């Protein structure tokens, strides 16, 4: 059995792990590269993966986030015809995320062509909404903890990772070898999701390292967000919150409802301006057994904001005087309606932008976090005069202490470990921490690296 790393090596996006046995080829995760331009361009390049699309037997998907699932429609268009296995929660989410991703790419290509700012003539989408919807026919939801027999020599089991709804760790067994893929690991203190389940034993472990070199602030996120909102409310400005549609949008709705109920913030008009986030919020209510919120809390979360569905409703938000809160996708401000809101409000000092998630290098969100004086949107530069606030305590990724706790609570004996899904410094730091803590054989694979297991 062999493993080849075709993404998420030296970066936090583009997760793709190619597994080959004596007879078959499989893929764990199939994500888009995001962030820096040189990474985004890799989505367009003919690759080793595209060449093998037709011979890949199956895809196993850890969770629905686009950096893990967003390349699937493209791979199907390139000839993949096998099943895609994932948890039921993940399947319900990709039914929302993938068509929306295709739609956004079509919109962005159309806008670039109309405005003439793309270097490509014409600008094209990586894939269309129609292609994304076609790819959904290949999904096969499976139950947690139920061993799935893929072939005579290949068995797969999913367990809960706690990161977002449906997030999974995947145990793959073949040829008397076993390997676990962590996917993205959730937190023990997550406001909504339950903590990750301990792992069983395996010969190999592929583990994420998004925050492998740091510890999250032990801040009270409710108090932190309340301070920001109260200060912004005095200015009667707009509060724009770029938010991941899955996970972070639900965090923000729950927090804002609780703060208003406790009268720790004024009853500011709040908008959830993302059809994808609205649909994802409905799913969190449907799958309440997977997280900490009961049905009453789910209903309260849904009542925290005005749900904005159409582009016309989104534009009408501008006519509402401040103070107001706008929660909109995407979380790194790399696309979607939030970019239009940033263009509208970023140039006024009375407004506030709140960053509530990981900001990958090369994204607008990272530029704002790093204190950029200008931000490029729609081919133009906008001066950043709005106040920018970062709330790191809302991350849905385990930090280094939580990852170590998780591994100590697991039944792993002496696995060989591959550290992925982290920027180079974070991955290397976590590699060294694992060696020091457990004495395991640990390494950070480079992109394209292949190992015999």
Structural features, described:
The structure is a single chain. The radius of gyration is 21 Å and the shape is globular. The model has no long low-confidence stretch (mean pLDDT 94). The chain folds into two domains: 2-214 and 396-452, Metallo-beta-lactamase, Chain A (4-Layer Sandwich), CATH 3.60.15; 221-394, Rossmann fold. The chain has helices at 37-40, 48-51, 66-69, 72-77, 88-115, 129-135, 221-234, 248-261, 275-286, 295-302, 311-316, 337-345, 364-369, 400-409, 424-438; strands at residues 2-5, 16-20, 25-30, 56-60, 84-87, 139-142, 148-151, 154-160, 168-174, 177-181, 204-208, 238-242, 269-273, 306-307, 324-328, 352-355, 374-377, 380-383, 387-390, 416-420, 441-443, 450-452. Helices cover 32% and strands 22% of the residues. Strands 6-5-4-3-2-1-22 form a seven-stranded mixed β-sheet. Strand 2 and strand 3 form a beta hairpin. It has 453 residues and is an alpha/beta fold. The relative contact order is 0.15.
Brief summary:
The chain has 453 residues and is an alpha/beta fold.
- The overall average pLDDT, rounded, is 94
The named CATH superfamily of the largest domain: Ribonuclease Z/Hydroxyacylglutathione hydrolase-like
**CATH class identity of the largest domain:** Alpha Beta
Q: Count of DSSP helices?
A: 15
Tally of structural domains:
2
Oligomer: single chain
Main-sheet strand order equals: 6-5-4-3-2-1-22
N-end to C-end Cα span: 5 Å
Strand percentage = 15-25%
Total beta-strand segments: 22
Could you name the ranges where pLDDT drops below 50 across 5 or more consecutive residues?
A: none
Largest sheet: 7 strands, mixed
CATH topology descriptor of the largest domain: Metallo-beta-lactamase, Chain A
Q: How much helix is in the residues?
A: 25-40%
CATH architecture of the largest domain: 4-Layer Sandwich
Our Rg estimate from Cα atoms comes to 21 Å
- CA-based shape: globular
Computed structural class: alpha/beta
């Amino acid at each position: 059995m062999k493993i080849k790393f075709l993404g998420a090596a030296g970066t936090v996006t583009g997760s793709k792990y190619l597994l080959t046995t004596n007879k078959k080829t499989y893929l764990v995760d199939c994500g888009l590269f995001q962030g820096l331009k040189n990474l985004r361009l890799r989505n367009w390049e003919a690759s080793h993966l595209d060449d093998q699309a037709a011979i890949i037997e199956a895809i196993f998907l850890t969770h629905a986030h686009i950096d893990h699932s967003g390349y699937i429609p493209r791979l199907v268009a390139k000839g993949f015809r096998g099943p895609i296995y994932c948890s039921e929660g993940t399947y319900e989410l990709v039914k929302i995320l993938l068509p929306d991703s295709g739609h956004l790419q079509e919109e962005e290509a159309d806008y670039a062509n109309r405005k003439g700012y793309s270097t490509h003539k014409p600008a094209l989408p990586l894939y269309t909404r129609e292609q994304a919807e076609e790819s959904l026919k290949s999904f096969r939801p499976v139950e947690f903890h139920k061993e799935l027999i893929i072939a005579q020599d290949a068995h797969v089991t999913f367990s809960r990772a706690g990161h977002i709804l449906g997030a999974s760790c995947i145990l793959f067994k073949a040829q008397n070898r076993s390997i676990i893929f962590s996917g993205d690991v959730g937190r023990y203190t997550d406001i909504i999701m339950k903590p990750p389940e301990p792992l069983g034993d395996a010969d190999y472990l592929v583990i994420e390292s998004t925050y492998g070199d740091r510890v999250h602030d032990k801040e009270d996120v409710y108090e932190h967000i309340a301070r920001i909102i109260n200060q912004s409310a005095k200015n009667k400005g707009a509060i724009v919150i770029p938010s991941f549609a899955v996970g972070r949008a639900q965090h923000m709705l729950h927090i804002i409802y609780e703060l208003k109920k406790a009268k720790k913030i004024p009853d500011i008009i709040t908008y959830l301006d993302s059809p994808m986030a609205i649909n994802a919020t409905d799913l969190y209510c449907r799958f309440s057994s997977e997280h900490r919120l009961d049905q009453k809390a789910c209903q309260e979360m849904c009542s925290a904001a005005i749900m904005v569905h159409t582009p016309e409703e989104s534009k009408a938000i501008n006519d509402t005087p401040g103070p107001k809160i706008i929660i909109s996708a995407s979380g790194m401000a790399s696309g979607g309606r939030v970019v239009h809101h940033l263009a509208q409000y970023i140039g006024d000092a009375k407004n506030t932008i709140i960053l509530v998630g990981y900001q990958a290098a090369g994204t607008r969100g990272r530029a704002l976090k790093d204190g950029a004086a200008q931000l490029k949107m729609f081919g133009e530069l906008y001066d950043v005069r709005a106040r920018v606030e970062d709330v790191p305590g809302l991350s849905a990724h385990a930090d280094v202490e939580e990852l170590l706790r998780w591994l100590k609570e697991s039944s792993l004996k002496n696995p060989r470990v591959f550290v992925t899904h982290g920027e180079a410094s974070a991955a290397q730091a976590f590699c060294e921490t694992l060696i020091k803590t457990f004495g395991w054989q640990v390494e950070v694979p480079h992109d394209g690296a292949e190992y015999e297991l």
